[in-house]
# Entry
Amino acid sequence: MYLYIANLYQKQGDDEKYMEVIKEGRAAYPDNSDLILYELNFYLRNEKFVEAEENLKLAISKDPTNKQLHFSLGVVYDNLGNSEGAIESYKRAIEVDPNYFDAVYNLGAFYFNQGVEVINVANEIEAQKEYDAKMAEATAIFKDAQPYLEKAHDLEPTDLGAIASLQQLYARTGEIERATEMKKKMEAASGK
# Structure
């Protein structure tokens, strides 16, 4: 009954009443996984990541083999700036389903973005030795991203995000032929 009423409020766009009903339902049935997921979806839609984190942990305790819950927790941690939590959650989703594109791609993209951040820091360094050390650190991070982005591309060969990420990764790691191959794939996919 709580879910039905919550759905009605959601269709009306009344988030306040929606959450009121869900919280009432959670109080009456604290272990009901559907109510937990409805609450979670509200938090994710409204970018309430701290609340979503707690809700996801509860949902995972009820359903530890749900790859989407682990993936969602990774996204939440990513948004909260918790790098270790994001990596661990994406890896757990991949453990549940090694061919889960979203988790594989997000983990690769996460590492790739970390590498880009390190390059941005390196670009601010004037001392050559320190600059070289930062660039080597970035290259190592890109190498961490590579197997995940390649697997994502294998799983979804036409995904433009995976192709673009690989093109940039290969260019940054000096694999020019592979970067050119990805550029051609990108051009073919976009009709250029």
